[in-house]
Amino acid sequence: MSFIFTTAIEVLALFSFGCLILRCRPWLSGITAILAITIMQIINGLFQTMTQIVYGCGGPLGNFEKLLLAAISLTSVISVFIAYRYTIKSFYGRKIALTQQVLILLLPTLFILLILQFIISSSSSTGFLSQLTNAGHMILELSALGCLAAVLYAYHRLLTGFELELKNTMLEQQAASQQDYIDELKYRYEQTRSFRHDIKNHWTILENLIQKEELIKAQEYLGKLKDVTDKTSFPCSTGNTVIDMLLSSKLGLAAQKEIHVDCTVKIPAKSSLDDLDLCIVFSNAVDNAINALSTLTEGNKYLLLSAMQKGSFFMIEAENSRCMKDSSPIVFGIGLNNIKAVAQKYNGTISIEDGPDFFRLNVLFLIPQHQTYH
């Protein structure tokens, strides 16, 4: 069989293995199959040229030449392994795997593979490449290897740029959504200010009703005052008005979904923690818990939310119940990645405990010790 036909069979075999055995997506199986064959052919061709140089010395092979050939073979295997490891770094842990980005890598790699096929076919025929010396072949193979490395490096930098752009976009969306809570907080503040301004009038009316012994009207008036105060107060007092407003909205939604909520969140009165960063952490943590509990059809639906300061550390914990039958792995989505980005901003970290009937998220912030808290 021709060399091109055997290469096509190798690519098809690796592609089928990726799709059927490893259960990879077709585009990933295709590009990795082409990359694997291209890397193998470039490096094998390079070391085969070295082998030809050793054989071309003429005369019987001595012990030194035999050891040299063995070293060349071993180095070839090691070089292929190193090249594969370098290639994996271009794929591993990537959150972006769109078709257009894959085509950017696929087309130049496929072009390099076709050029290699042409070089090998021409070298074995009577073409002009058959007249090249071993040094000429080595230059061509090194050039192909350099081109492939440049393509992979450019692809790596390109994906890094796309990921940073995506992360910035998501953080901007988070900031825009948190602005809504801040606007609502200002509205509540104006309501509270108005109520405090009229509080003396309310006490005067109640005093007159009691003096006239119109207790039923006084009780009705107190009920109306209670409704007004409920609208201006927060169900969870954290010490931070912005977070109070945020949790008031989020936990109200949880109550509507019949989720039992236990909130013991205490925010330091004075700290370097930005309100927007805290909003990103709490909103994503609570949203993820509510979304998970919304699909829970059996068992106790609960959400435990706590936060406290211990020394130089500020710790946030969110725990929610989950179904024991649900064994799906936890995937780092946009929400968890945003929480992780905020934690890293304060030299902190996040940890996840995924039990059979619970999910717990811990977020740790490092706060400078020289600050004073109340």
List its salient traits.
alpha+beta, 5-stranded mixed beta sheet, 65% helix, 9 helices, 374 residues
3D structure, described in words:
With 374 residues, the protein is an alpha+beta fold. It has nine helices and five strands, in the order H-H-H-H-H-H-H-E-H-E-E-H-E-E. Strand 1 (260-265), helix 8 (275-294) and strand 2 form a beta-alpha-beta unit. The longest helix has 78 residues, at 134-211. The chain is elongated, with a radius of gyration of 33 Å. The chain starts with a helix and ends in an 8-residue tail after the last strand.
Report the β-strand fraction as a percent range. Answer: 5-15%
What's the shape? elongated
What share of residues is helical? 55-70%
Tell me the radius of gyration: 33 Å
SSE class: alpha+beta
Biggest sheet: strands, sense, closure?
Answer: 5 strands, mixed
Order of helices and strands: HHHHHHHEHEEHEE
| Average pLDDT for all residues | 76
The strand order across the widest sheet is 1-2-3-5-4
Number of helices: 9
Could you give the count of β-strands? 5
Low-confidence stretches: 370-374
First-to-last CA distance: 81 Å
Give the topology, please.
Elements: H1 3-21, H2 26-55, H3 63-88, H4 99-123, H5 134-211, H6 215-232, H7 241-256, E1 260-265, H8 275-294, E2 302-310, E3 313-321, H9 334-345, E4 349-354, E5 358-366
Parallel strand pairs: 1-2
Antiparallel strand pairs: 2-3, 3-5, 4-5
Give a short overview.
By secondary structure, the protein is an alpha+beta fold. 65% of the residues lie in helices and 10% in strands.
